[in-house]
């Protein structure tokens, strides 16, 4: 997951967020049940902390709820062993 996060920051590529979510969870799940469990715990904590941050920044406006749901769907996609390239945006360098 750290590698996917690092690659996401380095790539800084528009519309690539879901791909890196799926890839990080996929990579972790490939390490076995413990990896899938850790990926779920980390992903859930990350999304919950982001919701709290959004609450302070934007109030109870629902800001970011749909994006958070989409992130969690990409996380689950990757953890379930499905190909993260489903979320790969056109033009993202092959390096990633």
From TrEMBL:
Transmembrane stretches in the record are none
- Could you name the domain of life of the organism this protein comes from? Eukaryota
**Where do the coiled-coil regions begin and end?**
none
* Region annotation (Disordered) ranges: 57-96
Among the Pfam families in the record, one is SAA
- Which family does the similarity line name? Belongs to the SAA family.
Please identify the protein, giving its name as recorded.
Serum amyloid A protein
């Amino acid at each position: 997951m750290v590698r996917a996060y690092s690659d996401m920051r380095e790539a800084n590529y528009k519309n690539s967020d879901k791909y890196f979510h799926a890839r990080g969870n996929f990579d972790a799940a490939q390490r076995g049940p413990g990896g899938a469990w850790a990926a779920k715990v980390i992903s859930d904590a990350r999304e919950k902390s982001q919701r709290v941050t959004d609450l302070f920044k934007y109030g109870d406006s629902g800001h970011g709820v749909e994006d958070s749901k989409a992130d969690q769907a990409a996380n689950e996609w990757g953890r379930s062993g499905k190909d993260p390239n489903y979320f790969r945006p056109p033009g993202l360098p092959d390096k990633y």
